[in-house]
Amino acid sequence: MICNQTLGRKSLIAVDALRNPLEAIFLQDRITNFHLVAVSCPDEQRLIRLALQNFSAKEIKSIDSTEYANRDIEVESTYSMQDIQGCLQRADIYLSNPDGDSRVGKLTNLTNQITRLISLMKRPGIITPTALERCMQIAYTAKLNSGCISRQVGALITDNNFSVKAIGWNDTPHGHVPCNLRNRDDLLSGLDKIAFSNYEKNDETYINNFKERNKRYIKIAATGRNVSYCFKSEFNSIYKTNNQVHTRSLHAEENAFLQISKYGGQGIYGGFLFTTASPCELCAKKAYQLGIRKIFYIDPYPGISIAHIIEGGESNPYMELFSGAIGRSFHKLYSPIMAYKDELNALAPEIVPKGIPA
Ligand SMILES: [Zn+2]
Ligand SMILES: [Zn+2]
């Protein structure tokens, strides 16, 4: 870099491997032209690649449990340990690195994506976004509407020409108050009645446990923060279960599917689904039943929903790992600094044709 500086050349800097979303946020906040790039491949190919590098199944499992562990924000190491999912959610650019179709063409796909990316970094707006990027950007916009306090996900449904039919984000059914707007003390003091269910307001076991757990938050409440809570976590901690039935929210994909049934629209048989995460088992089943042909997703670790549901039977949706820019990088890379026509005009002085009187 220093050498380039003395020679009057520009530098592109690649930082190889950030471990934690907080490191990424630090750089994203300070460097305007910083792009967090996530490189991933379908999970089954990742497992084969690791096996080829002599990792045993046991070793892979232990790597996964560190990289995909449950984070406790009260534990100090959470802020420095590897958090792949957190980094994936914060990434600006996704490169997919699936196996090539031949030995010689192994890296062609990845090389093309990188070439495109660097061209856009050097010359924003030199080409326009792909249909995939445009659609994923809409899903990405939708996710910010989610009132879930643990995770925000966005989804989009298009027909097979990328014509947008519906959007959704994970949230409570319309009419229920989203988790981020509810407050523990409001429940116990009988305020904000509309925000809480009859079960929450009347079940004795629930209320007693809730009171007990509330002690933990007294200090935080004094700081003026809204102490909201996740009903599912409360319920599961009382009954020592890990039941997913008690989430208050619908998933982003479900909400997108339902938007069409709710307000009317056209059938989505043969259409595409975009999700800023990856479809869970329940949403994968709905997508399958609706005849969705392709699912574009970002998080490459979708549990068993691909192997068990998507790949079951004979009318399987095709799963494609998203590649492209979203969020701030979408705007940064695709907004031209000036209209190309103006640039050309400024660089090429006008030639006045001879013979025409001035
Ligand atoms: Zn929630
Ligand atoms: Zn789901």
TrEMBL record:
Alphabetized SUPFAM superfamilies for the sequence: Cytidine deaminase-like
Family annotation (Pfam families): dCMP_cyt_deam_1 (PF00383)
Gene3D superfamilies named in the record: Cytidine Deaminase, domain 2, P-loop containing nucleotide triphosphate hydrolases
Keyword Hydrolase: yes
PROSITE patterns to which the protein is assigned, alphabetical: CYT_DCMP_DEAMINASES_2
Keywords: Hydrolase
Entry GO MF terms: dCMP deaminase activity
GO cellular component: cytoplasm
Domain annotation CMP/dCMP-type deaminase: ranges: 212-325
Record-linked PANTHER family: DEOXYCYTIDYLATE DEAMINASE, DEOXYCYTIDYLATE DEAMINASE-RELATED
Name of this protein: dCMP deaminase
Species assigned in the record: Janthinobacterium svalbardensis
